[in-house]
Amino acid sequence: METKHSGMQLPGGEPTGKRLLATALVITIALWGWLTGWSFVFGSVPGREPLVLADQPVVRDVAYQLLRALFAVGVAAAVVRHFGIESPLAWLGVSRPAGREWGYLPLGIVLLIVTLLGAQVLLMGVLGFERTPSQSLADPVMLSRLLTLLVLVGPAEELIFRGTVQQSLGDRFGEWPAILIAATLFGFGHVSLWATAPGDLLWLVAQTGAGVVLGWVYYRTDNLVVTALTHGGFVSLTTALAVM
After folding, report:
1. Is the pLDDT of residue 153 over 80?
2. Structural domain tally of the chain?
3. What are phi and psi of 97, to 5 degrees?
4. Which whole number is the average pLDDT over 157-168?
């Protein structure tokens, strides 16, 4: 399938595959370190008290998601500047969804539900593995996440892993290798220092599977907006179900 910007050559020259892979890995590690550090500051680590805004959990959580989005924008801006990309929105595939592209939004959400819910049932119900319980959140925080997951978290992670990493690797390695590499880094980016139960490592494989779904949606639509809405819609929907 030829996409709108497939085969686009980076104005800064054609980087080597090793250089692109190293850059993608550095971006992922930097994201992990950025979020882990702020988790300690905002008390997102189980058993730790927040260092700031101790009595304002909603503000803390929104600030954390904003910092995630800020990092994503910074990464995209750095890549665009480094390679001298003249039309960054076109290169990333940022455009208003049209026609059949809208169909991939519900399809992607359904595939994510099947992938992650199926993995949850397999790990805990069939294989009997345990996962580290997630930190309990106050109801106001859960309600605020219905919005922040949709408009901040989904777009931020897709801007990094699909819009920047997958798109940069696509021309050098081909679409499916790029999808798999970006999905693997996406799974690694969800590593948590305090998630050490036997099922946590296997859950990262499920996260990688979710990354493959999102990478496929991006490949088929060539539209980062669709992918961001798919990701954000899924996490917001599952949060809404938890609230209910």
Report:
1. yes
2. 1
3. -60, 145
4. 95
User: And the tokens for 66?
Assistant: 């904003």
Residue 94 domain flag: yes
Question: How many angstroms separate the CA atoms of 206 and 189, rounded?
Answer: 13
Side chain identity at residue 94, one-letter code: V
**Distance in angstroms (rounded) separating the CA atoms of residues 101 and 218:** 10
CB contact at 8 A, 179 and 215? yes
For residue 123, give its domain range.
17-243
Give me the phi and psi of 182, to 5 degrees please: -65, -40
Residue bearing tokens 């709108």: 4
In whole angstroms, how far apart are CA 199 and each of 28, 62, 133, 207, 216?
Answer: 22, 29, 11, 12, 26
Q: What is the pLDDT of residues 9-54, one digit of tens each?
A: 555 556 778 889 999 999 999 999 999 999 999 988 877 889 998 8
**pTM for the full predicted model:** 0.91
Is 229 within the bounds of a domain?
A: yes
Instruction: Note whether residue 4 is domain-resident.
Output: no
In this structure, is residue 1 part of a structural domain?
Answer: no
Residue 145 is encoded by which pair of tokens? 């996440």
For 92-127, how does the pLDDT look when each residue is reduced to its tens digit (9 = 90+)? 999 999 999 999 999 999 999 999 999 989 888 888
Cα 106 from chain centre? 18
